[in-house]
Amino acid sequence: MQQQPNNTEFFIEGNGVADMGLIATPGARELTALIDRHLVRWAKRKGMEKETFIIPSECPRFSSGDGKGLIKNTIRGDDLYIVVDVGNYSCKYTMFGHENCMSPDDHYQDLKRLIQAASGKAHRITVIMPLLYGSRQHRRAYRESLDCAYALQELQDMGVENIITFDAHDPRVSNAVPLMGMDNVMPTYQVLKTMFKSIPDFRPDPEDFMVISPDEGAMNRNMYYASVLGVNLGMFYKRRDYSRVVNGRNPIVAHEYLGESVEGRDVFIADDIISSGESMLDIGYELKKRGAKRIFCNATYAIFTGGLAEFDKAYADGIISGVYGSNLTYRTPELLSREWFHEVDVSKYIAYFVAAINHDMSVGSIIDPNAKIQALLKRYGVKE
Question: Is the pTM of this model over 0.85?
Fold first, then answer.
């Protein structure tokens, strides 16, 4: 297996294909600052005097709601990395005296404005969009739009050469842009590392631990966790009522379990998004009925459009022992204050990508974290 290079090796000779520049859209300033911190530290280890790679920019709005993109420094010949969080609804703007929260559509428009502001002067443009725009509308049924596929084609037409995204709802959407670089990454190692740090007696052994997929759509991610940990895998499948449509979807009638007994075992459930969290809690209650010991939930995007009170009750009742979510999209202060929520920092992982792409190095070893996971398990005495 190809070994992942040491982080300082990314700055060999101090030069990449071009000078590196980070641009943060309004909703991604926090994440961009964390990425920049890692890059600056690595650069200084190689003798590069660099205070920041962030290029000042903004997307101001007129009182009518119209906007524009503005890049405040020269970017001619730069290798640009534009970071965007389409899920950050905490960003607001005033339109005709009314305050509006920015929607995914607004963030996507700001991304295009900043690409336009670069005016084709950059050496190369890479978009870092952890939460992929329109990704939940990934396939067509009847007369429906294909927002994600069309957005990817639009970015390609605007000159974007690479897109880095995390845990796409359906990675097959990359088929829409077969000639553009698109890396869909899973923060598996970061999740396990955070679990080992936050759970003192975390022991993922086959006798005491199981991975459970919440539905058939999440099987691949949970199968990977079970494989690298060497534990058994179970799954639920959602039995739906296809005679009715509620909020645009066929309602779930029941969660049916397939797999061996979970009695007396800790259980780990991974999914891409926790929205209301209703399905995750239903599974938690079902597993407790079957004798599960502790239940740990993971979602790359713990957006929690609702359901915090329900999770508070489940935690107080001993149903859920913890929820792990990344910092790849906006998390509300209310969520961050919860004792049961554990944040998974993925900024260093993104910094590896930025540095590797800037030097035209292979990212294969970064995408496949198996070697790092095995080293992590060995460090904590799980595997000899």
Answer: yes
